[in-house]
Structures are given as structure tokens and as C-alpha cells.
Description:
Oligomer: single chain
Number of domains: 1
Helix content: over 70%
Distance between the termini: 36 Å
Low-confidence stretches: none
Number of strands: 0
Amino acid sequence: MIGIALGTAGAHLAGQLAGWRIELSAAAILLAAGFAAGVGVFFGFYPARKASGLLPIEALRYE
């Protein structure tokens, strides 16, 4: 939520400074947030799931 608010504010600020007309759609914001959340969940869940199948001594051997 903070990232969405900062991104929206930054887009409006850039538009004001450059003299551009800024139009943000809710669908674009939700799509971007959903994609970012999906990437975060995948790259957090996949390594954790893979590591949970290892024995602790084997997992520590590769460090």
C-alpha cells in the first residue's frame, strides 16, 4: 500500500514538474501490485519449500 501511494504521488509530481497530464487506472495499479506480490511469493516460497526437504546437516554442508 505504501509503494502504491508513493508511486501515485511520484507520478503526479513528475507530471506537475514536466507539464504532463497523468492518468492512472485502477486496473493498471492492481495488475502491477498483483504481479509484484506474485513474484515475491514465488521467490520466497520456492526456496523455502526446497530447503524444507533437506536434512539440516546437508543444507549446511553447501554454505
